[in-house]
Amino acid sequence: MVMLVCLVMLVLQVGGWVVLNRMYDAQYAHYRHLKLEGLRLQRLSVPFIHMIHVSRATHRLPVLIFKLQRSVQKLYGMRNSGEKTMLFLAEMLGYGYITAAGGALISLLMGGDTSVLVIGLGFGVLVPVALVKDLYGKVQKRDQQILMELPELLNKIMLLVGAGETVQRALLHCVERKGTDTVHPLYRELRQTIGEWQSGYSFQQSFEHLSKRCGIQEMTVFTTTILLNMRRGGSDFVIALRELSKSLWGKRTSISRTRGEQASSKLVFPMALILLTVIVLVGAPALMMMNM
Questions:
Q1: 69 Cβ partners below 8 Å, 6+ apart?
Q2: What values do phi and psi take at 45, rounded to 5?
Q3: Residue 121: helix, strand or coil by DSSP?
Q4: 207 to 137, 183, 197, 216, 279: CA distances (angstroms)
Q5: SS3 helix, strand, coil % of the chain, rounded to 5?
Q6: Residue 198 to residue 125: CA distance in whole angstroms
Q7: Could you tell me the sign of the dihedral formed by the alpha carbons of 253, 255, 258, 260, in that order?
Q8: Can you tell me the distance from the alpha carbon of 283 to that of 275, in angstroms, rounded to the nearest whole number?
Q9: Which residues contact 206 (CB under 8 A, 6 or more apart)?
Q10: C-alpha dist (Å) from residue 209 to 44, 79, 172, 205
Q11: Which regions span the lipid bilayer (predicted)?
């Protein structure tokens, strides 16, 4: 009975994928050309994208889709964020699909082992969940990188503005000093902001776009403070930036403390393993001598 179930699952999964890929390849072919780092199943995504559209998952799970799209926007930009979110959902479904099919195949080869089939189905659910967790972890790491660098950027801007530079020139100077090869998310967003106002957007519009792309409260406060006080100039502007700098340095200290606690907690298991190994190495000779 279990072998029959495994065989039916394999036929339906493989056959269904082949049929859907042939039927809808032309309709969803443009998804294969989107650039999204970290995806491994992009060439196999057409049937899974069709499944998502047919099941109306975007309407049935609006909260999850919104969170995923916001995370994708932060990591990969605002352009084509809807299509990129669909591609990420297809990647999740593809991994679950392949894992479940692999479990059915191994169970079939082992003569219908029920435990292998159940394990395969379980991993078919857990792997997509792990992908979502990994995406949220990358977003959290990006936000922390921006918060860690923002106080230093603000100090540089204060020094340059106090020396007589305009805010635009100060930002341009800070970004140029970092170079174009830096992969830091804050300076990547600032380069895009500079490109926007140099191509015709106003400074205010460019900074509003910067705040939306970063998507963190501290960056919103940073952009709002600059836009509200830059016209005043003089000491009022520098004082406003100094007050904001104190708050951001406090945030940076909190993040550093949290990272230190996380690093120490990750060392608990390796240290316990080393302790167990030492106990075995020291105690084994003593036990051997007692048995003799």
A1: 81, 82, 85
A2: -80, -20
A3: helix
A4: 26, 20, 9, 13, 60
A5: 85, 0, 15
A6: 47
A7: negative
A8: 12
A9: 193, 194, 196, 197
A10: 34, 12, 17, 6
A11: 87-110, 116-136, 267-288
> pTM here?
0.81
- Spatial distance between the Cα atoms of 220 and 198, rounded to a whole number of angstroms: 22
41: which 2 tokens?
A: 């199943």
pLDDT digits (tens), the chain, 292 positions: 667 777 777 788 788 888 888 888 888 888 878 878 878 888 888 888 988 888 888 888 888 889 899 899 888 888 888 889 999 999 999 999 888 888 888 887 787 778 888 888 888 889 999 999 999 999 998 988 898 888 888 888 888 887 878 888 888 888 888 776 568 889 888 998 888 888 888 888 888 888 888 888 888 888 888 887 766 655 677 777 888 888 888 888 877 777 777 777 777 777 777 877 877 777 767 677 666 5
Residue with tokens 């990969």: 76
DSSP state of 80: T
Q: Provide the residue count of the chain.
A: 292
Cβ–Cβ under 8 Å, residues 122 and 102: no
Count Cβ atoms below 10 Å from residue 64 Cβ, excluding itself.
Answer: 13
